[in-house]
Amino acid sequence: MQPIKSIKDIPELDLFTGGSSVCAGCGPSMGLKLALKVLGPKTVIINSAGCMTLLPLFPNTPLKVSWIHNAIENAATTAAGARHGLDALGFKDMNVVVYAGDGATYDIGFASLSSTAIKNERVIYICYNNQSYGNTGFQCTTATPYGSETKTTPRGKENPIGNTNIHKDMLKLMGVHRVYCATASLAYPVDFLNKLNKAKERNGFSYIELLGTCATGWNFDPRYTIKISRLAVRCGMWPLYEIDDRKLSLNKEFKQLKPVDEYLQLQGRYKQLPPDGVTKLQSLVNEHWAQLNEFNAKRYV
Amino acid sequence: MREEELIYKGIHGIPVILEPGNAARVDRSSWRLVRPVYNKDKCIMCKICYTYCPDSAITWTKEGPVINLTSCKGCMICVEECPTDAMSEEKEAS
């Protein structure tokens, strides 16, 4: 398939209508809408409990493709089952796609994800990472970045930082399984859809992680959804790269990263982060960015 | 069986959705405080508003974007991202 070159090239395929009950300016629903433009009508979406479960709320659905909703632990194994079933029935051209949140991917569903990845089933796993359990009211997951305030890690006199854990490096973990894995951002839809095209043509498991900006949880005006997605990439908080057969390649390279402060100031969840917290976060970002640059076009895991 | 009954009673007691994408008819206009207004003279047909609308409230035609105010929740991403200010915002009458 020809790679998409610009926003004008994106197929005009509307398989996702409006009227769903997710928040205004929802990043993950925008991600699904864009993904369906490339995946096409022959798609089964497997969703584990999370924000995106609110899309098909009976008796209305915004989707024109099949949708399986299941428990939070086993989205990946359900996908493997669906793949085998479809193959046995002769529907080999159908795409099986998992659309799960970061709580289901990083924490609760990691066992089933790992087992499906190691068996190299022909499944595309898209994780919309809103860095929290968004649906239940913004609790901390292992994807929550350092310094973010959540419901379970509030700021106080004893702990002014908020979340003191450093988030899990999921791409590295998935790279160890020797599958195709990549990060994506909503502000770079062409890059995201090209990665999805690549994953679609592979005869194996692929893992794509999308930064799902969450206006309600991150506490910002929904009009800045794309601006924040773009700043996350420009500041180095969300570098765009892919790992194919254990080799890393950076997709967006910058000579100079913007200071992290610019990204933090727009969001309410970082509003009262003290200066030493910002310094620590900046040093973590710099460390990760230096590591990615060092291993660019080399074996990473 | 009438159509409304079929949806809830379904086939063998399992509820069914007869029409995929029927959420497009659900009215979400009460969610928004401001609405986007399109100005054709400034538009450069870049498709950015169409790509970035999270609720598919903007459809693309040959003449440019068409805003569906039933689905629009007023997130104003189109207004913020438009490179030429062809989209502007207007307060909803309360």
What does this entry look like structurally?
The complex is a heterodimer of chains A (301) and B (94). By secondary structure, chain A is α/β, with parallel strands linked by helices. Chain A has one domain (7-294): Thiamin diphosphate (ThDP)-binding fold, Pyr/PP domains (Rossmann fold). Helix content of chain A is 34%, strand content 15%. Chain A contains ten helices and eight strands. Chain A has helices at residues 27-39, 75-89, 102-108, 110-118, 170-175, 189-201, 215-218, 225-234, 260-265, 275-294; strands spanning 43-48, 66-70, 95-101, 124-129, 180-185, 206-211, 241-244, 247-250. Chain A has an eight-stranded mixed β-sheet with strand order 2-1-3-4-6-5-7-8, with helices on both faces. Chain A is globular. Chain A starts with 26 loop residues before the first helix and ends in a 7-residue tail after the last helix. In chain A, 51% of the residues are buried. The mean pLDDT of chain A is 93. With 94 residues, chain B is of the alpha+beta class. Chain B has a single domain (23-91), classed as Alpha-Beta Plaits (2-Layer Sandwich). Helices cover 18% and strands 19% of the residues of chain B. Chain B is built from three helices and four strands. In chain B, the strands form two sheets. In chain B, strands 1-4 form a two-stranded antiparallel sheet. In chain B, strand 2 (58-61) and strand 3 form a beta hairpin. Chain B starts with a helix and ends with a strand. The mean pLDDT of chain B is 89.
